[in-house]
Amino acid sequence: MELKDRIKAARKHAHLSQVQLAQAVGMTQTSISDLERGKSRATSFVAQIAGACGVNPLWLAEGRGEMLAERGQANAGPNASWLGAVESWDDETPLDADEIELPFYKEIELSGGKGSTVILQTGGRKLRFGKYTLRKKNIDPASAACVTVSGNSMEPVLPDGSTVGVDTSARTIKDGDMYAFDHDGQLRVKLLYRLPGGGLRIRSFNSDEHPDERYEPQEAAEHINVIGRVFWYSVLV
């Protein structure tokens, strides 16, 4: 099934006309029509379309997995209200009974380190997250953290500024899953694939601008440290 077929199937699933879908995601009806006819073969609105139609963004973008994501897996957009609202807060804001605070990972420049960086959990910025989602995914709250995606390498699924949830206890690579990892002090979120002998292939969704990277076993062992597997993500539309 090609992208044009998946978009049409998603729209039909949501019982939306082309005009209604266009209005929901900020596109024109002509643009939706061009996508469904195959006249346009790509769009940066995949996450928004998936959210409006209530389908799995990975399926819509790549044809991977099922059209309908299992409950507990994030869909972008307003129909994903079961995830709970993401709110800004500080140390003075009380948590609800079914909420937990998740720390963010970020790059920290070492003082006197000649520009060297390390990846650390910050003690400041946090995200309020529902315990229910963690329970459904069998994730220990103590192993959960968040990462902010930067750049366009993971578009259209993860636009710049997206937030992902990471299970730091799941560091064994399963081919094709998304992982957060420390690459010589650079915090990255990518699709990872194992290569024979312990090598590693790193893949971006935006493969036109960011081609695959291949690392020999020694390079991968010395320069790449997997932080954990991505189990949840949220995008702004």
Automatic annotation (TrEMBL):
Residues 7-60 form the HTH cro/C1-type domain. GO terms for biological process: autolysis; DNA damage response; negative regulation of DNA-templated transcription; regulation of DNA-templated transcription. GO terms for molecular function: DNA binding. InterPro entries: Cro/C1-type_HTH, Lambda_DNA-bd_dom_sf, LexA-like, LexA/Signal_pep-like_sf, Peptidase_S24_S26A/B/C. The keyword Translocase does not apply. Keywords: DNA-binding, Transcription, Transcription regulation. It holds the Pfam family Peptidase_S24. PANTHER family: HTH-TYPE TRANSCRIPTIONAL REGULATOR PRTR, PTHR40661. This is Probable transcriptional regulator. It comes from Pseudomonas aeruginosa (strain ATCC 15692 / DSM 22644 / CIP 104116 / JCM 14847 / LMG 12228 / 1C / PRS 101 / PAO1).
